[in-house]
Amino acid sequence: MSKVIHCQIVGEIASKLATYPKIRKFLLYQQRYFRKFPGLIAEGRDMGTVVFPDAIIKFFLNANLETRVYRRIQQLKKIGLSINYQELFQQLKNRDERDQNRLISPLYPSKDAIILNSTNMKLSEVIEYSMKEIKKKIVI
């Protein structure tokens, strides 16, 4: 199952389905149902703005398109899949444009999100930075 959810087609379908009001309303209810004590970590393009606008801490993680394409190719290679760089570049570019311009919950950072551009960061640096921000906000 975890391999399937990371396939490119799943992201494409999710992005397209998110443009339909009835589907979006149903999914919003389902997503919010998962919020139970002690909380959760949610990942998605409108988690901080629409699904969980009152979350204690929000990160808006981004990187330039070239870096995201490279990282995605590496991720797919790890699960035995391969894709053409130019094809993936165009798919991600189209998805970004569609998600940023859709009428229902468009992609943008919430006003209280911590913007994290990871273009020139390693995963360990992203984790370290995120943990510092979390510790500032939450008493652990």
UniProtKB/TrEMBL annotation:
Q: Which family does it belong to?
A: Belongs to the cytidylate kinase family. Type 1 subfamily.
Enzyme class (EC, first level): transferase
Q: Give one Pfam family.
A: Cytidylate_kin
Q: Which keywords does this Swiss-Prot/TrEMBL entry list?
A: ATP-binding, Kinase, Nucleotide-binding, Transferase
Q: Name one GO biological process term.
A: nucleobase-containing compound metabolic process
Which parts of the sequence belong to the Cytidylate kinase domain? 2-135
Q: Which GO terms describe its molecular function?
A: ATP binding; dCMP kinase activity
EC number(s) from the headed UniProt entry = 2.7.4.25
Keyword Zinc on entry: no
The identity of this protein, by name, is: (d)CMP kinase
**Reactions mediated catalytically:** CMP + ATP = CDP + ADP; dCMP + ATP = dCDP + ADP
